[in-house]
Amino acid sequence: MFSKLNNKSFLREIYSTICLCLFVVFFFLTPHNAHAINRIDTKYFTIIYDDDGEYTAGEIAKFCDDIYEKLMGNFDAYEDNPRVICLVNDAVDLANGYAIYYQNTITIYATNMDFELRGQSNWLKNVFVHEMTHMVALKKAARGPINLVGIGGGRYDENPDIDVDIALYHLSQPAWFSEGMAQTGAETFGSEKWDTHRDMLLRSAWYEQSLLTYDEMSVLSGQKGMEAEMVYNQGYAVVRYIKEKYGLDKVTELNNSSGYFDFDPTIRNVLGISPTKLYTDWYKSLDNRYASYKDKSFSEGEMVQDSGSTDYFPVVSPDGKYLAWLSNRGKDYAITDLMLTDLSSGKTRRLVDEVDYRISWSHDSQKLLYVKRPPQRPNFYDIYTYNIVTNREKRISKQMRAVDPNFSPGDSLVVFVRNEGGNNSLAIINSDGSGLRYLTLTHDGTQFYRPSFSPD
Predict the structure, then answer these.
(1) Which helix (H) or strand (E) holds 392?
(2) Got the DSSP string for 332-394?
(3) Which residues in 251-321 belong to E strands, given as ranges?
(4) Could you give the CA distance from residue 10 to residue 316 in angstroms, rounded to a whole number?
(5) Would you call the peptide bond into 160 cis, given omega within 30 degrees of 0 as the criterion?
(6) What pLDDT score does 376 carry?
(7) Of the candidates 124, 66, 46, which has an alpha carbon nearest to the alpha carbon of residue 90?
(8) Any residues with CB less than 8 A from the CB of 110 and at least 6 apart, and which?
């Protein structure tokens, strides 16, 4: 799975997808409006979408068969992968995708990827190939016709009592390999790349001696904020290391040779070394790669805040008195709240719960501009202001699907990025929410980030 998640919003997204699946079933079993839902049939895929997902579905149809054939060839999986149902979901502002490999179903959300811990790429192809790599690779790696079975036996009311339970799971891959392989698959057949953002995360963790251990990067459940992203980051780095040192065929063999109980014997059989040796060798490669940083001196500023595992988008007020930023302090994952610190007193307070994306100040340093999901209809982002003098929040847009808002000089206008049908546009509204007008109307997948007015 890909992108920025949090517990509440992800549950909403799963709910939306379940509703869409039920709607698909309803569509095929009952009389319907021909414009309510649509489909595209390719050689291997049935792509199902509503009218708002037409652009995204059309783009997927252009490359899906070619990608599928390449992946099936790479994993020698031609007999294991029948037709795929692809659901395109544009009913929520979420950039993500997931595959249910044992049901040959893939869901792609039409919102473009804007994830500050990763670089910019052809997000749609990137997410699609990532999830399809999961689809093909995990089906090939799975052992047996069932997902999970427990075998137990025991002796009771006798001395000694004995209880033996064995769980047989048909997939034994650790998270670092599964996700790292999906990233590598996207790099090989899609648009993924090891960019400067990823290298920054890995280099910083190496420099601070905070890299995840082998066991820590083997699981995703229970990981918080940055730790979860580092499972992807380090997994991608380790699998790339295996690919560069041993060859892509060995990465494929590791996947196709997965056993029932444990992945460690697979590493020994395929690479001829222990998992500990693999991790140590990879770590040494980082020592060589980043050796020049050992002798560098870095200037450290005064630490203002360090209370969350995720702290995003710090912005100082124009008068220099306040610092606002987003933090997940006290929460799992990247569920971030809008925070404010008085730089003279050092006092910090939480202003608004569950704020996302970039924030900005009014030019009089009295208001913060941000987006969040409204509680009544939480699928789409809307624009809000918070007055730090009156401590009042005000919503200034309705179902606008807006991100990255910014005031004009004088604070009479707000420019923002609007998401519609898998496309971005730049738009302006008056600061009271009236007078929507577009600066751009693109229909080619162009992504926009953080628009702002010139000083004049």
Answers:
(1) strand 392-395
(2) STT--EEEEEETTT--EEEEESSEEEEEEE-TTSSEEEEEE--SSSTTS-EEEEEETTTTEEE
(3) 311-316
(4) 31
(5) yes
(6) 84
(7) 124
(8) 52, 53, 55, 56, 88, 89, 90, 421, 422
Nearest residue to 8 via CA among 333, 395, 384, 400: 333
Whole-angstrom Cα distance, residue 377 to residue 148?
37
CA–CA gap between residue 214 and residue 226 (Å, rounded): 16
Beta strands in 33-192 (DSSP E): 38-41, 45-49, 84-89, 97-100, 105-109, 148-155, 162-169
Provide the token pair at 116.
Answer: 């500050």
Q: What is the pLDDT of residue 9?
A: 47
- Residue 392 CB-density burial (10 A; 0-12 exposed, 13-18 middle, 19+ buried): exposed
Token pair for residue 208?
A: 């601070």
Number of H helices, E strands in the chain: 9, 19
SS3 (DSSP) at 22: helix
Instruction: Report the distance separating Cα 205 and Cα 65, nearest Å.
Output: 38
Task: Report the C-alpha gap between 26 and 29 in whole angstroms.
Answer: 5
Our CA dihedral for 47, 51, 56, 62, rounded to 10 degrees, sits at 50
Is the separation of the CB atoms in 239 and 180 below 8 Å? yes
- Tokens of residue 300, six digits: 């450290």
- What is the DSSP pairing of strand 97-100 with strand 367-372? unpaired
The whole-model pTM stands at 0.84
Average pLDDT for runs of 10 along the chain of length 456: 45 53 48 66 96 93 96 88 92 91 93 80 90 93 66 68 61 91 92 90 93 94 79 96 96 89 92 97 96 82 80 94 91 85 94 94 97 91 97 94 95 95 93 94 88 93
Report the chain's terminal Cα–Cα distance, integer Å.
43
Do 79 and 61 form a contact (C-beta atoms < 8 A)? no
DSSP tag of 431: T
Q: Which helix (H) or strand (E) holds 404?
A: strand 402-407
Tokens of 282: 């990879």
Residues 126 and 244: their CA atoms lie apart, in Å, by 21
Read off φ and ψ for residue 133, nearest 5 degrees: -65, -45
Specify the 3-state DSSP secondary structure of 149.
Answer: strand
Contacts of 311 (CB under 8 A, 6+ apart): 305, 325, 326, 327, 328
Residues 368 and 341: beta-carbon distance below 8 Å: no
- CA–CA dist 355, 377 (Å, integer): 15
User: Positive or negative CA dihedral for 175, 124, 138, 170?
Assistant: positive
Instruction: Judge whether 216 and 236 are in contact, CB under 8 Å.
Output: no
DSSP run (H or E) holding 275: helix 275-289
Reduce the DSSP state of residue 284 to 3 states and report it. helix
